């Protein structure tokens, strides 16, 4: 069967292009900032003392991803942040970060805050898992 394209001059379909490839611009001379990826999970006393929920300290049981990006000599107003389900794209006048995330996230449900004293942007994203009932049953 033949796939019909909206534009006859295109050489591939939109489904064939991987998510985040539109951000790949290796020609950009801006340097990549230092960053750190942390994983966060919500635990209660039943988890800590009794292990009743079946959670373990692995990243498979974490609910959130926290990304801390060091941005020295940067103002909050200079930061451009775009988050897709598997890609974080950060741009400032001096720095650029294209980060493929370790897990898919809910791109509509996230928080970012700029800690001006530490010159760090902290981005918190909710991990999106397809089979949540299996992971945390």
From TrEMBL:
Coiled coil: none annotated. Residues 32-127 form the PIH1D1/2/3 CS-like domain. GO terms for cellular component: cytoplasm. InterPro entries: DNAAF6, PIH1D1/2/3_CS-like. It comes from the Eukaryota. GO terms for biological process: axonemal dynein complex assembly; flagellated sperm motility. Signal peptide: none annotated. GO terms for molecular function: dynein intermediate chain binding; protein-folding chaperone binding. Belongs to the PIH1 family. This is PIHD3 protein.
């Amino acid at each position: 069967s033949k796939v019909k394209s909206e534009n006859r001059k295109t050489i591939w379909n939109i489904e064939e292009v991987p998510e985040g490839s539109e951000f790949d611009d290796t020609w950009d001379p801006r340097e990549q900032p230092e960053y750190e990826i942390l994983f966060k999970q919500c635990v209660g006393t039943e988890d800590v003392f009794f292990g009743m929920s079946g959670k373990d300290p692995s990243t498979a049981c974490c609910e959130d991803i926290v990304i801390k990006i060091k941005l020295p000599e940067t103002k909050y107003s200079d930061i451009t942040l775009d988050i897709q389900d598997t890609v974080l794209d950060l741009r400032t006048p001096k720095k650029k970060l294209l980060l493929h995330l370790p897990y898919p996230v809910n791109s509509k449900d996230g928080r970012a805050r700029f800690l001006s004293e530490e010159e760090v942007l902290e981005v918190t994203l909710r991990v999106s898992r397809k089979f949540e009932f299996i992971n945390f049953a």
